[in-house]
Specification:
Bound molecules: glutamine
Largest sheet: 6 strands, mixed
CATH topology of the largest domain: D-Maltodextrin-Binding Protein, domain 2
Shape: globular
CATH superfamily of the largest domain: Periplasmic binding protein-like II
CATH architecture of the largest domain: 3-Layer(aba) Sandwich
CATH class of the largest domain: Alpha Beta
Mean pLDDT: 89
Structural class: alpha/beta
Number of domains: 2
Low-confidence stretches: 1-9, 13-35
Distance between the termini: 83 Å
Number of strands: 14
Helix content: 40-55%
């Protein structure tokens, strides 16, 4: 009788173990399949082309890169299982770098425009930018109309550059490699105004005495990530990651960390 009980117990244990084993498989597999199929591609390293002179979106803190775009890109790369590598270059070189495949995507407070859309694809927009005008505190320029015939500084190849050239004539526009250099030119009196995105404008005005931002919105724009037209999978994956990071509050938290509500 004792032997029979031991035998029955042993049989019961085998069944229990087998049952556990069987249960584990269906529990694990859908999870695995879900992570595997969530994204179209697999990525080891994602290279971000940027111009790290555009606070608070991207700038250097000693040797490190910081800013909204840097943190969002880091979160996207993590979501896609990749390591993020940042490649710092002139803003004007970013699209060519993405097109050639030298970098995986461009992220630099980049405005979505119809012209750029002919060259690259854009992700969903993750932020809004506004073109504004910086002048000296004692300037007689008070409105966009006052810019007529004045010397305007811009950053080469930016929307501020395109609008200023279209509206006020290329003979009145001086292009600088960096926004900060246009601001130095304004301080030195080489130009009368600088047209640039609102958040970098605020950062530059805070760093430099004697400047102010005109209370006028020159243009409201959407920022998005530029991706090669040959990389539809990465575009879909970045959009999916952005959607997730938006839904779980990550994007808002990153933006709030750098841009304090007024
Ligand atoms: N938003 C502007 C553009 O896309 C400026 C971007 C920048 O200078 N980094 O042209």
């Amino acid at each position: 009788m004792k032997k029979l009980i031991v035998l029955l117990l042993a049989v019961a244990m085998v069944f229990t173990l087998a049952a556990c084993g069987n249960q584990q498989t269906p529990v694990e597999e859908p999870e695995k399949t879900a992570t595997e199929s969530a994204y179209k591609g697999t990525y080891d390293v994602l290279k971000m082309a940027t111009n790290a002179a555009f606070p608070p979106y991207e700038y250097k803190e000693g040797e490190d890169f910081a800013g909204i775009d840097v943190e969002i890109a880091t979160a996207i790369a993590k979501e896609l299982g990749a390591e993020l590598e940042i490649v710092d270059m002139e803003f004007d070189s970013i699209i060519a770098s993405v097109q050639s495949g030298e970098t995986s995507f461009g992220m630099a407070g980049m405005t979505v425009t119809d012209e750029r859309k002919e060259e690259v694809d854009f992700s969903s927009s993750y932020a809004t930018g506004v073109q504004v005008v910086i002048v000296a505190e004692d300037s007689d320029i008070a409105s966009l109309d006052d810019l007529e015939g004045k010397k305007i500084g811009v950053q080469l190849g930016t929307t501020g550059d395109f609008y200023a050239t279209d509206d006020y004539g290329s003979e009145n526009v001086t292009q600088y490699g960096k926004g900060a250099d246009a601001v130095i030119a304004l301080k030195g009196g080489d130009v009368d105004a600088v047209i640039i995105d609102n958040e970098p404008a605020k950062a530059f005005v805070a760093e430099n005495e004697g400047l102010k931002i005109l209370n006028t919105e020159y243009a409201v724009e959407d920022y998005a990530i530029a991706i090669s037209k040959d990389n539809a999978d990465l575009l879909a994956d970045i959009n999916k990651a952005l959607e997730k990071l938006t839904a779980d509050g990550t994007i808002d938290a990153i933006i709030a960390k750098y841009i304090k509500a007024e």
